[in-house]
Amino acid sequence: MSRRPSSPDSEIARRAYASFAERYDAAAPTKPHNALYERPASLSLLGDVAGRDVIDAGCGSGICSEKLARRGARVRAFDITPEMLGLARKRCAGLDVDIREGDLSKPLDWLASNSADAILCSLALDYVRDLAPVFSEFHRVARQGAHLVFSMGHPMRDWTDPRSRGDANYFATNLWGLHWGGFGAPNPYVESYRRPLQDILNGLADAGWRLDRFVEPLPLAEMEAVDPEHFRELSFSPAFICVRAIK
């Protein structure tokens, strides 16, 4: 792990994923941490999406966008990384998915107010330093009664891991990075933000969202056969949080 001078949020995400977009796209659909852990938990919180207008915020290579569209949703997806967007367009070709470049750290000005029945933001908010404007923009584009579902690194997991904690205070938001394994060589260097839980949940409430469900997911039983080491680890201590809020 190492720290670098702070960079604009868009640069952090774009630089990280542009370096291994195709390798990510090949691995993530079946990678246990994604396919048998975070993704099922997040999609379960989202519920039935048939006939609904759903935003996939930080869509990456379109894995969730495809699933949502095949379940009957009208999907508007965006991401900051052009390489990921190209892969998403291939994956979602022929489906009811509108894909464009967009930055979570900036206004989502192409999305109309009160136009979404649900918003999914899967493992993308860790690349944004200030969550308050993002939650406010999500609230603006959501219809009354809409669900927001997002997942992030678990704050306590980040705090107890010396790689992400370093010498920082738990109550401070800090940028950290490490080389990721599991996506082939060379191991990509990925930076993200570690922050306290109160900043996440209070930012959500301040933007007008009502917390509906807070989940520290357990791995699916199938993970034990394909990745027993991480199955045991995640059965003992969570890596992510998954949150559902209602407007």
The profile of the biggest β sheet is: 7 strands, mixed
Tell me the CATH topology: Rossmann fold
Q: What is the count of DSSP helices, taking H or I runs of 4+ residues?
A: 11
Second-tier CATH architecture: 3-Layer(aba) Sandwich
Described by the principal axes of the CA atoms, the overall outline is globular
Mean of pLDDT: 92
Helix content: 25-40%
Structural class: alpha/beta
Q: Supply the number of structural domains.
A: 1
Q: In words, what does this structure look like?
A:
- This protein has 247 residues and is an alpha/beta fold.
- It has a single domain (19-154, 195-246), classed as 3-Layer(aba) Sandwich (Rossmann fold), CATH 3.40.50.150.
- The protein contains 11 helices and 9 strands.
- The chain has helices at residues 9-18, 21-27, 32-46, 63-70, 82-91, 132-141, 155-160, 162-165, 197-206, 223-226, 228-236, and strands at residues 53-57, 74-79, 97-101, 116-122, 142-153, 174-179, 189-194, 210-215, 240-246.
- It has a 7-stranded mixed sheet, with helices on both faces.
- The longest helix has 15 residues, at 32-46.
- The radius of gyration is 17 Å and the shape is globular.
- Residues 56-150 form the Methyltransferase type domain.
- GO terms for molecular function: polyprenyldihydroxybenzoate methyltransferase activity.
